[in-house]
Amino acid sequence: MNYDNLMRECFDLARKGSGKVLTNPMVGAILIKNGQIISKGYHKSFIEDHAEIDCFNNLKESAEGATLIVNLEPCSHFGKHPPCVDEVIRRKIKRVVIANLDTNPKVDGIKKLREAGIEVITGVLEEEGRKLNEKFFFNMKNNRPLVALKYAQSLDGKIATGSFDSKWITNEESRAYVHKLRSEYDAILVGANTLRQDNPRLTSRIEGGVNPFRIILSDKLDLYRNYEVFKENFDEKTYIATISKKDIDINAEILRCRQKDGRVDLKDMLKKLYERNIGSVLVEGGSIINNSFLEEDLVDKIYQFIAPIIVSGVDSRSAFIGEGAKLIKNSKRFSIENIIRFGSDVMFEVNNVYRNR
Ligand code: AOF
Ligand code: ZN
Fold first, then answer.
1. Hey, whose CA ends up nearest to atom 13 of ligand 1?
2. Which stretches of 122-221 are assigned E, i.e. beta strand?
3. Is-catalytic flag, 52?
4. Ligand 2 centroid to 14 CA: how many Å?
5. CATH class of the domain defined by 144-352
6. What superfamily in CATH does domain 4-136 come from?
7. Which ligand is in closest contact with the Cα of 29?
8. Where are the alpha helices (DSSP H) in 32-152?
9. Threshold 0.85, pTM exceeds
């Protein structure tokens, strides 16, 4: 039997957890018996049941002899929940079909299933499954959140004019895509300067979009409570990463980070965020913040939007500003994974995650 279509359906179910499962993987599960789908389920959020359990909970009949299709190897460890494999065995499932092995070192579900006499088929649409859970696999391998930079630039590579004007470089379609990205990333990071200049809300304004956590990078903690990101009505928290010892009365959790060259040590900040179950960060910073991540080798992905305008000018800003490579051969090299057109704009999805996967 070919399980490709059912696995694709598992991926679609899994995607419903996008932005909500945090450092957990997106997982969907389907049960079939006598060629019929008898139940479906998915991992809805970080704290909720695993996909397999959700699928069993939705079941209206006995699962005995059924085939379970699930895009990730069922877990065998005691985490926030008991092992899924125990439930699979208890329910007398005949066969388990999976796309990807779970790279969490605590998990070895397949062994347990096979020992219980259950047939296990692995590697169905493995590559698509890997792409779907790119962030999770990255987290498992690197023990830190995946970092993606997002910026919009002109044809001549400028993200702002000399007077720091950067509004409306890209068109509406590109901006809509940014809102989709914001709902897929666990957190969104900007510098304190962006708050001062634009006072953004940093929410995902698409239908059904999940709001990300907000991270404000502020070395000196010179912030005011009346910025939009500190207003009450958010489900997700705002964090401020700082090296200041100052106390301020503000609606955010302050992450006191180690310092490096007088600035927040980004690796230390990412460690603290990971401890808070943030598995991916979308950086919407300017030249300086982008460059700090670049210098620390912390740029795993880039979403680079390009609008067909030319800004020119010696004072205008490009996406990175640092010492720069003296020779082209010393530049940092990435790979372009995907190119999408948004009307008159173009977006490059640039990847570095393969280095770390
Ligand atoms: C599954 N099905 O739907 C998911 C799995 O803390 P816990 O108990 O939620 O465990 C989290 C780990 O379980 C996670 O790192 C990954 O290895 C696995 N996630 N496993 O069988 C699921 N979400
Ligand atoms: Zn599980």
1. 75
2. 146-153, 187-191, 213-217
3. yes
4. 13
5. alpha beta
6. Cytidine Deaminase, domain 2 (3.40.140.10)
7. 1
8. 51-57, 84-90, 109-115, 126-132, 134-142
9. yes
